[in-house]
Amino acid sequence: MIAPGSETELSETLAQASAPLAVRGGATRSGAAAGAEVLSTAGLAGISLYEPGALTLVAGAGTPLGEIEAVLGREGQRLAFEPMDHRGLLGTEGAPTIGGVVAGNVSGPRRVAVGAARDFMLGVRFVDGAGRVVKNGGRVMKNVTGYDLVRLMAGSRGRLGVLSEVSLKVLPAPETQGMIVFDGLSVERAVAAMSSALGSAYEVTGAAHDAAAGRTMLRIEGFETQVAYRLGRLAEHLAGFGVAETVADPDAVRDAWREIRDAAPLQGAMGDVWRIHCRPSAAPKLLSRLEAERVLVDWGGGLLWALLPEGTDARARLGTFDGHATRVRGAPRPDVPARPPEAGPVAALTAGLKARFDPRGILNPDLEA
Q1: CA distance 23 to 161
Q2: Rounded CA gap, 20 and 27, in Å?
Q3: How far apart are CA 262 and CA 266, in angstroms?
Q4: What are phi and psi of 292, to 5 degrees?
Q5: What is the pLDDT of the chain when averaged over all its residues?
Q6: Sequence-distant contacts of 284-290: CB under 8 A, at least 24 apart
Q7: DSSP code of 311?
Q8: Beta bridge partners of residue 60, listed in sequence order
Q9: Per-residue DSSP letter, 360
């Protein structure tokens, strides 16, 4: 394992590299890479700037996510995009890092209300495959010049460069949170209820349906008096879907949404796990095609987690649809890539970016599929 302790060391390592490198932060989402030496970012850790009044934080890419959340929590702030912890689902160890979160654009249930991880990126520093240090963005949202590399690096999975530092916008944590819960709704009815809730004026920050438990959950956050009022009005707004249970205990709500965030209903079960992005209105039909063993619906129907028998090709079952399906857990199969093939124009753009930032093709070659 190679573990540079500074950006300079990272630059020298990449400039001199002659073999494939598997970029790893906390290794919570990726296992060992065949034929590639692991390049760890653990030595690029630490919070270098935190200005609570400016809602700004700058940290090394290898900084553990838990450390950042603890620092923010002491100031009554948080990462609004609610990043998932993959360890329970994937059976991995280690600790998630902020660089891994950004590289994967890891975003949780609150994405339906506030946006994805990339929407909170202010700036990045990274080293490309040729060893060149690149900086883009800054400490304010409007500071973007030339290529918008800040957003490009969010979701690039370490294939264009190795993140060394990230700048983030953070937000105040709410005073409290509550939710209403419907029991026994079908997927069709649950998606309809979630769509109606998200389209209402009551600022819903989470909309999920656990098919196995038959529970449809809608979360509201904010000041205590406002949350109580909005929960009541939301229940009235959705009265046509049945009688809803109101959960006002913030700890219970937090625990419930942590399980949604981390896809807990699919943990501990044998089989492959697929993550499907789709139009919410298409979710019921797609799930009927999948015939999954377990299902979790998030983002109001826009994100589906599905447990399928080992070796099952979810894309073959789904057929053509407006979205894409990715295998997040399961043995590699040469005939069924984990990620769907890109359309011709997108593939050409991807190849051009890869040639520009990693001309030797040494960064995360195991993630090409």
Answers
A1: 9
A2: 17
A3: 9
A4: -75, 155
A5: 92
A6: 284/186, 284/187, 284/188, 284/191, 286/318, 286/321, 287/187, 287/211, 289/317, 289/318, 289/319, 290/314, 290/317, 290/318
A7: T
A8: 165
A9: T
Half-sphere exposure of 51 (CA within 13 A, CB side): 10
Domain ranges of the chain: 7-172, 176-199+207-250, 262-360
What is the rounded distance in angstroms from the CA atom of residue 45 to the CA atom of residue 225?
A: 40
Is there a contact between 222 and 174 (Cβ–Cβ < 8 Å)? yes
C-alpha–C-alpha distance, residues 236 and 204, integer Å: 14
Tokens 């069924």 -> residue: 336
Residue showing tokens 């890419």: 61
Average the pLDDT over 166-179 and give the result: 97
For residue 42, with 0-12 CB atoms within 10 Å meaning exposed, 13-18 middle and 19 or more buried, which class applies? buried
Instruction: Give SS3 for 291.
Output: coil
| Sequence letter at residue 316 | A
β-sheet bridge partners, residue 125:
135, 165
233 with 203: CB under 8 angstroms? Answer: no
62 to each of 13, 53, 66, 87, 144, how far by Cα in Å?
16, 25, 11, 17, 24
> CA-to-CA distance for 133 and 36, rounded, in angstroms?
22
Q: Are 14 and 162 in contact (CB under 8 A)?
A: yes
346: tokens are 């997108």
Show the DSSP H helices in the chain as ranges: 7-16, 65-74, 87-90, 98-104, 111-114, 149-153, 187-198, 224-237, 250-261, 283-290, 314-318, 344-357
196 token code pair: 């109606």
Whether pTM > 0.70 for this model: the answer is yes
Residue 240: alpha-carbon gap to chain centroid: 33
Report the alpha-carbon distance of residue 223 to residue 154 in Å, rounded.
Answer: 31
Per-residue pLDDT tens over the stretch 95-131: 999 999 999 999 999 999 999 999 999 999 999 999 9
Contact between 327 and 334 under an 8 Å Cβ cutoff? The reply is no
- Distance of alpha carbon 157 from alpha carbon 76, whole angstroms: 30
Pick the CATH number of 176-199+207-250 from 1.10.150, 2.30.30, 1.20.58, 3.30.70: 3.30.70
CATH class of this structure's domain 7-172? alpha beta
Residue 325 pLDDT level (bands cut at 50, 70, 90): very high
Take residue 339 and report the two structure tokens written for it. 């990620």
